[in-house]
Amino acid sequence: MDVVDLARMQFAVTGGLHFLFVLLTLGLAPLVAIMHTRYAAGGNPLHERMTRFWGQIYVINYALGIFTGLVMEFQFGLNWSGLSHYAGDVFGAPLAIETLVAFFLESTFLGLWIFGWHRLPKALHVACIWLVTLTAYASAFWIMVANSFLQHPAGAVEQGGRLVLRDFGALLTNPSLVFALPHVISAGLWAGGFVVMGASAYHLFRRTPEREFFTRSLRLGVWTSFIGSLFTVGFGYAQFGVIESVQQGKFDGAVPGGALGLMITIGQLGQFAVMFVLLPLLIKNWIARWRWLHPVLMLIVPLPFVAAIAGWLVREVGRQPWLVYGRLSVADAMTPGLSKAAVTGSFAAFAGVLGLLALVDYLLIARAVRRGPGQVALGMPDRPADPAPVPAHSL
Amino acid sequence: MEIFWFGVLAALLLGYFALEGFDIGLGILLPVLGRSQDARDRLVGAMAPFVLAGEVWLVAVAGVLFGAFPSLEGEVLSGLYPLVVTLLLSWIVRDAGLWFRRRADGAIWRRVWDAAVCLGSTGLALTWGVILVALANGLSAPPLAGVAAGIVVALAFCLHGWTFAAWRLPGDPAVRGARRSGRALLLSACAAAAPAALALAAVGSGVVGYAAPPETLTTLGAIVLPCAPILIGAQIWVWRTFRRGALPTFF
Question: What residue ranges are annotated as transmembrane (chain B) (predicted)?
Answer without folding.
Answer: 6-32, 44-68, 80-100, 112-135, 141-164, 185-211, 217-239
